[in-house]
Design brief:
Layout lengths: L7 E6 L8 H10 L3 E6 L9 H8 L10 H5 L3 H7 L2 E7 L1 H8 L6 H8 L3 E6 L3 H5 L1 H12 L3 E2 L3 E4 L5 E5 L3 H9 L11 E7 L3 E2 L5 E2 L6 H12 L3 E7 L10 E4 L3 H11 L5 E4 L6 E3 L18 E3 L3 H6 L6 E8 L3 H12 L3 E6 L11 E8 L3 E8 H16 L1
Parallel strand pairs: 1-2, 1-3, 3-4, 4-5, 8-11, 8-13, 11-12, 13-16, 16-17
Antiparallel strand pairs: 6-7, 9-10, 14-15, 17-18, 18-19
Helix pairs in contact: 1-2, 1-9, 4-6, 5-8, 10-14
This protein binds flavin mononucleotide.
Length: 397
């Protein structure tokens, strides 16, 4: 099935009689999982109200280039950058001509010029207008610039004419939009990923943690999103920027991360445990800061709950990928972890090598499942994430 999960689509509506169909286009795009924002041209506003489009898209409709309030929140440049694809449906002959000639005479044409997003247009007009040489030349110009043209349907038109020019069915339009995006290997899948380093309090100002930066986990978050998954990112103490297309939940300690994972795990098909979770916590963290003294200080540690083990024990457990960060006997320890936790995949990660692993942009790992063991040679964490997911998808999905 096609999918638009994680995709940001601008639906631009221009001045055609068929603009009354646009709420249904918004619905179909949303059904495919897209986030939709609407631009309404002055001509479009003659045929459909801003209020109905706002109600269906659940966002303010953008219509005025000179709106000073809009420029303070999501202005035309931000809107242009936000979009993964701009769909103009219906596209009037006038708007097509403006875009073909590179004008920036209103909000829509300015956003189109300012955006690198894929542009799709669905011309809709009287059959004679559609056949006009000027219109066809404009479409040819746009095609030469890689704009995708949605061929109009043929049939009886609002004006009584019969011929090409009718706006196609909304589901057909949404389907053609979804086909513009290739990577949909994880479409329809919910993936929960833990990342970062948990922090175990000693007192209100000190904690026990580790060197994990969250870079490997964030590479997996980003790649899963590109592959069409709905990602829940449960993180602790990371140095990398978050992906705003994920549901991002911040935690601190191993206990908090455990609680958060267990709360959200029911809806997941895949669980990827990348976080470096502290095996122990301080048994009795103090309420007040511990004062310096000449005496030695003994902290009593107590074991934390094992998040991966507890997820793997669930009767409706998702497919589980765990990471084994080891400093010695990496493979042996990783294979033991696979067996002891009964998880589906372990990624063995030798963190004793300073050029890979913790806090580094590169990594080198071994993918281990019951059926196979594959070395993934040294590469950027982004490429490693891609390879892990491709091997996993081939074996399990
Ligand atoms: C009743 C009516 C229906 C119209 N239907 C269409 C149409 O289907 N397609 C089209 O290209 N123009 C149509 N037009 C003309 C456009 O609305 C007009 O060119 C307008 O300036 C387009 O503005 P815009 O491109 O900024 O949205 C229609 C005009 C009227 C009065």
């Amino acid at each position: 099935m096609s999918s638009l999960t994680n995709k940001n689509i601008i639906l631009a509506i221009s001045g055609s009689i068929s603009a009354y169909k646009s709420p249904d286009i918004i619905r179909r795009l949303q059904d495919f999982g897209a986030e939709v924002r609407v631009i309404l041209t002055t001509g479009g506003a003659k045929f459909i109200t801003e209020l109905s489009l706002q109600a269906i898209s659940k966002h303010k409709v953008h219509h005025n280039l000179w709106d000073k309030d809009a420029e303070l929140s999501m202005g035309h440049i931000e809107l242009a950058k936000w979009a993964d694809l701009i769909l103009i449906a219906p596209a009037s002959a006038n708007t097509i001509a403006n875009i073909a000639s590179g004008k920036a005479c209103d909000l829509l044409t300015s956003v189109v010029l300012a955006s690198t997003a894929k542009l799709m247009i669905a011309p809709a007009m009287n059959q004679q207008m559609y056949q006009a040489v000027a219109l066809q030349n404009n479409l040819a110009t746009l095609t030469s610039r890689q704009t995708a043209i949605i061929t109009p349907d043929s049939g009886v038109q609002a004006c009584g004419d019969i011929g090409l020019g009718r706006l196609p069915d909304s589901t057909d339009i949404a389907d053609q939009v979804a086909k513009q995006f290739k990577t949909t290997e994880l479409s329809g899948k919910n993936v929960l990923i833990t990342l970062g380093a948990t922090m175990e309090p000693i007192d209100p100002v000190r904690y026990i943690s580790n060197h994990s930066s969250g870079k490997m986990g964030m590479a997996l978050v980003n790649r899963c999103i590109e592959m069409g998954a709905k990602v829940t990112c449960v993180y602790a103490n990371i140095t990398t920027p978050l992906n705003d297309k994920a549901i991002n939940i911040q935690t601190l300690s191993a206990d908090q991360m455990h609680e958060c994972v267990m709360k959200h795990i029911d809806q997941q098909q895949i669980f990827i445990a990348v976080a470096a979770v502290s095996d122990y916590r301080v048994k009795n963290p103090t309420i007040q800061k511990i004062k310096k003294s000449d005496d030695s200080l003994i902290l009593e540690l107590t074991p934390n709950k094992d998040i991966l083990l507890d997820v793997c024990k669930l009767s409706n457990k998702p497919l589980c990928i765990g990471f084994a960060a080891e400093t010695q006997n990496t493979l042996k320890n990783a294979i033991n972890k696979l067996k002891n936790k009964a998880c589906d995949v372990i990624i063995a990660n030798d963190v004793s090598n300073a050029e890979i692993g913790f806090n580094n942009d590169d990594n080198q790992v071994v993918f281990i499942s019951q059926n196979q063991q594959q070395n993934i040679s040294k590469n950027s964490k982004i490429k490693i994430a891609d390879k892990i997911l491709k091997i996993f998808i081939k074996e399990f999905l």
